[in-house]
Amino acid sequence: MSKFMRVYNLSLYFLIFTFIVVTHSFAQPRGEGNQTGIMIVSEPSGAYVTLDGEYNFTGRTPFFIPYDLLGKYKIRAEKSGYQVGRRVNSFKPEAETVYKIDLEPRTRHKALYRSLLIPGWGHFYSMRKLPGVVYFGVVSSNFISAASNHSKYHSLRSDYQDAFAAFSNPAGTYAEQKQAFDKIKALSREIDQYKRRRNRNLYIAGGAWLLSVLENYIFYPNFNEGESDLKKVMPTIQQKGDDIIVNIQIPLF
User: Fold this and answer.
1) Given a cut of 70, is residue 244 above it in pLDDT?
2) Which of 234, 214, 231, 34 is nearest to 119 (CA)?
3) Rounded to an integer, what distance in angstroms lies between the CA atom of residue 208 and that of residue 112?
4) Most CB atoms closer than 10 Å: which of 126, 215, 225, 239?
5) CB–CB of 79/47 below 8 Å?
6) pLDDT class for 123, splitting at 50, 70, 90?
7) Residue 169 above 60 pLDDT?
8) How would residue 117 be classed by pLDDT, with cut points 50, 70 and 90?
9) Strands 243-249 and 234-240: what pairing?
């Protein structure tokens, strides 16, 4: 974005915001007390905020609510690249004119930690649900298959030991020993087959899990890329008597 377009967009935002506040100040009757509303801001700005209480409000920070808020409100704030903020606040008459919400950024290291705990969790954390579902599905399905193959392997091992005991029984007849020997050979092939399947499932699950950790860490998304400069504007509002004073810090360069 060129410097001219940046200054133009910020100036336009300033004019729109000033128009809203000035319109509200003229529409408010004089001498009705000190509280005329509340400004909802966030750090960083540009968060989508919902307030659920006696009334419902929705807006993208910074925005102004031209009414008194009283009682408990459930507040939810979300913004790309930041963890969803949830809280409950009790608003009181004339308590505050600005309500600020601080959002905690999503980081590469937190995503790594989650990926190490549960495959795909780090991808959900980094707001990439589809790869997270794929990795979780591959790892979990192979672990389940490995458990099933190991159970079958363990059962065949038990049958093998019984057949070997029958073959080694000195009191057994030739026919019984031959039958036991044939069973031992068949069980040996099956045991080896299920052992290879179990190990293959474990290798695939471990490899997919490791790949999910490395892929999520190396290709962690850059949430700040392309973020609008307008969302860096942080207004404050003060009220003296019947007058509203608005302070806006605008980073031009």
Assistant:
1) no
2) 214
3) 15
4) 126
5) yes
6) very high
7) yes
8) very high
9) antiparallel
pLDDT above 90: residue 241? no
* Contacts (Cβ under 8 Å, ≥6 apart) of 126: 106, 111, 216, 220, 221
What are the structure tokens assigned to 37, written together? 């509303």
User: At 40, is the pLDDT very low, low, confident or very high (cuts 50, 70, 90)?
Assistant: confident
